[in-house]
Specification:
The protein is mostly beta strands. Helices cover 5% and strands 38% of the residues. A hairpin with a 5-residue loop joins strand 18 and strand 19. The model has no long low-confidence stretch (mean pLDDT 97).
């Protein structure tokens, strides 16, 4: 059970140190009349905490670090807003109109989550905030991490009376550039610091295809049917039920794959549902994005938490996005991540919490 001053203590801890620019982090907590809270930090526009007022006591359902220094040394992207391009771009390059763009690599030869100094490492500006919403912005100059065009991004996060945490993403550019924004929160609905893993959570994903990847986690180009594989979560099942069943999983150490969402759920339908082992908490994810990356924390072991270090599979990330490496797969017309100059990038993801 969390103490009454849990959120305040969390804020005190996170603001005690200095970031790379020598200044402390700024921390903001949203709350609603039901007693739910969602806390964010301007470094990385990071979702650092999400507490739910259960009858048995307040529960933290989001993995996070105790101090800013821990956030800066962890490599799991805990709660961060990632970009310019979430997930991987193979060989850190892509082409457009005959011109090749080479990105900064940070996962062997590949570019992961925007590069070594992506949006997760930057201080975002706070444009507006209240008890119910916060609006972040970041400006990315042309050539940042190798990407073309000057990109301006706004992320507005709100918490409403229906216990929904809503992320509204907006961006515009002066030159064609791929954009793929998401939040990299890890959820453990049984309690982030409970010591239990997420493998007994019940997961439902409304998708009929998933992206096949090679040993380097870069897509091969094949979109394979989930039917008859361990990737079929259409009717819901415990995460551990078919864990490591497939060769695709075995080389990734678990689930770390993109699922192509069914057309009928994109927008306001239920894309993903996650239910805690004790069934006291459920989370429904709705999104305008065409895909979701399900990552079962296969490399979380040793990541600093609020009370010691996290272990493998202690949280599950549900990253709504375009497909990984999509700038190199123009045949994936439904997952066109290119933002053209003068147009606006607009996407929304909603996390709906229900609890007892």
């Amino acid at each position: 059970m969390l103490s009454d001053d849990y959120v305040q203590q969390l804020t005190t801890n996170l603001t005690a140190g200095a970031s790379d620019d020598g200044q402390p982090a700024r921390v903001f907590t949203l709350s609603n009349a039901n007693g739910m809270t969602a806390t964010f930090m301007d470094i990385g526009a990071t979702w650092v905490s999400c507490t739910l007022p259960l009858r048995c006591g307040r529960r933290e359902v989001l993995l996070g670090c105790r101090t800013l220094a821990d956030y800066q040394r962890q490599t799991a992207y805990l709660g961060a807003t990632v970009g310019r391009f979430a997930n991987r771009i193979g060989n850190s390059c892509f082409s457009r109109n005959g011109k090749v763009f080479r990105l900064q690599a940070n996962e062997n030869a590949h570019c992961l989550h925007g590069g070594p100094h992506g949006f997760d490492r930057q201080r975002w500006q706070v444009e507006d905030c209240s008890d119910a919403m916060i609006r972040f912005s970041v400006s990315s100059p042309a050539g940042d991490q190798g990407f073309p065009g000057h990109l301006t991004v706004f992320v507005t996060v709100s918490l409403n009376a229906s216990n929904q945490v809503i992320f509204d993403y907006q961006a515009h550019t002066d030159e064609d550039t791929p954009v793929n924004l998401t939040n990299h929160a890890y959820f453990n609905l049984s309690g982030a610091e409970s010591g239990s893993d997420c493998l007994d959570h019940r997961l439902t994903v409304h998708a009929q295809r998933y992206v096949v990847t090679g040993s380097d986690k870069i897509p091969t180009g094949e979109l394979r049917a989930v039917a008859g594989t361990g990737f079929d979560f259409g009717k819901g099942k415990p995460v551990r039920q078919d864990l490591l069943l497939d060769a695709d999983q075995q080389q990734a150490g678990g689930y770390d794959h993109a699922f192509v969402l069914n057309d009928e759920v994109i927008g306001t339908g239920t894309a993903v549902e996650l239910v805690s082992e004790d069934e006291q908490v459920s989370m429904t994810v709705m999104t305008t994005k065409p895909a979701v990356q399900i990552y079962t924390g296969n490399a979380l072991a040793g990541t600093p938490g609020r009370d010691g270090c996290y272990q493998q599979h202690q949280g599950i990330a549900i990253e709504t996005q375009y497909l990984p490496d999509s700038p190199n797969h123009p045949e994936w017309h439904f997952s066109d991540a290119w933002l053209t100059a003068g147009e606006s990038y607009q996407h929304t993801t909603c996390y709906q919490f229900d609890f007892e």
